[in-house]
Amino acid sequence: MIAEKVLIIAEAGVNHNGKIDVAKKLIDAAAEAGVDYVKFQTFNSKKLVSRSAQKADYQKENTNDPVESQLKMLQKLELSKENHLVLIEYCKEKNIGFLSTAFDLDSIDFLNELNIDLWKVPSGEITNLPYLRKLGSFEKPVIISTGMAEMQEIEDAIKVVVSAGTKRNKITVLHCNTEYPTPIGDVNLRAMNTINSVFKVPVGYSDHTLGIEIPIAAVALGAKVIEKHFTLDKTMEGPDHKASLEPNELKAMVTAIRNIEKAMGNGIKAPSQSEAKNKPIARKSIVANRDIFKGEVFDENNLTIKRPGTGISPMKWDEVIGSKATRDYKSDDLI
To answer: What are the structural domains, with CATH classification, of the chain?
Structure first.
């Protein structure tokens, strides 16, 4: 599913605040940053949460109404079906992939009608068997986020998706921590490689930390997919803005990731094309330490080691010591 190039998903999520013009500006920013996909969220609030569901602590802190229910908050953040169509067309204009995460079964059906490229399972749905089974039945690539999950829950989710029809090689699992923002000490990036080792699937990282260094480090550790929230302005009202990147930060993250993936190379230790020219300059050769006459025996007094490295390698020192000069040498001549 995933090529050598790291797949970068810019998570717009609900940072459009329910406004189509803001959503378009988010697409502009994602396209300018050079990401592969911009991702939104598709849901029917009444089918997602009950009336009694309360907001998470971070949602209470980042919205102006701490006693507001989660349902009331989400109703203001829904994108209509018509808006989805507008945003898909706008993404085509901007030459960027459109994605959205479904949060209920009806939303899955709707997105399937839109023929999206791949499915993204959010962390909260990793234990939702009917949800996973429906996604798996489409036999398209599936990316699974694992915030709050234990290894057994990840295994169970993969089994459901595979048993529903999706081939295992189309599944990518993202390590994730579902706290906004995630404390650095809770990131546990090594868990990403544990997931890869145990389940033998491509892995990636969905990041909720502040800043860009952690997703960059994830790429260096082998992440094939990076997902990161972004916003137009962190000071905007809404549940996810404060834990998101602003456009200039998103662009810096993409640039760094592309540099890191280039720097990873092929793993073969050999002189690179760029450094080859410096080899004779930086390395050394066996040279005459003083004038040496033909027939004289080479020893540790009349020989030394100096740059350039265009003569006999110092690794042959023991072979040269004790042999005889076949001609005269001036001091500093290469032997």
So the answer is: 7-264 (3.20.20.70), 271-335 (3.90.1210.10)
